[in-house]
Amino acid sequence: MADEYNTNDRPVERTTIIETGNGGGGGGGVLAVVLLIIVVLVLLFLFRDQLGLGGSKTEISIPDKIEVNVN
Fold first, then answer.
1. Are residues 25 and 31 in contact, defined by beta-carbon separation less than 8 angstroms?
2. Digits of tens for pLDDT over the chain (71 positions)?
3. pLDDT at residue number 53
4. Are 51 and 44 in contact (CB under 8 A)?
5. How far is residue 69's CA from residue 63's CA, in Å, rounded to a whole number?
6. Residue 3 has what pLDDT?
7. What are the angstrom distances between the C-alpha of 65 and each of 18, 34, 61, 70?
8. Measuring CA to CA, which residue among 65, 41, 71, 38 is closest to residue 53?
9. Residue 15 burial by CB count (10 A; 0-12/13-18/19+): exposed, middle or buried?
């Protein structure tokens, strides 16, 4: 059966290129995870008072006298 694109009765050379592997791509996922972690840390820093993390007021009360009864 003759090839319909071959008009000169000469053999037609065809090249098929098959790419394997990812070719160095795929770094976008790592970048997205790093940016997500940075955003979460910034939000935790900004809203730490509302979340109760590391409040700015810490009160420590020490009594002037300690009564000890020894019987």
1. no
2. 555 665 666 777 888 888 776 666 677 888 999 999 999 999 998 888 788 777 567 788 888 888 888 87
3. 75
4. yes
5. 17
6. 56
7. 85, 54, 12, 16
8. 41
9. exposed
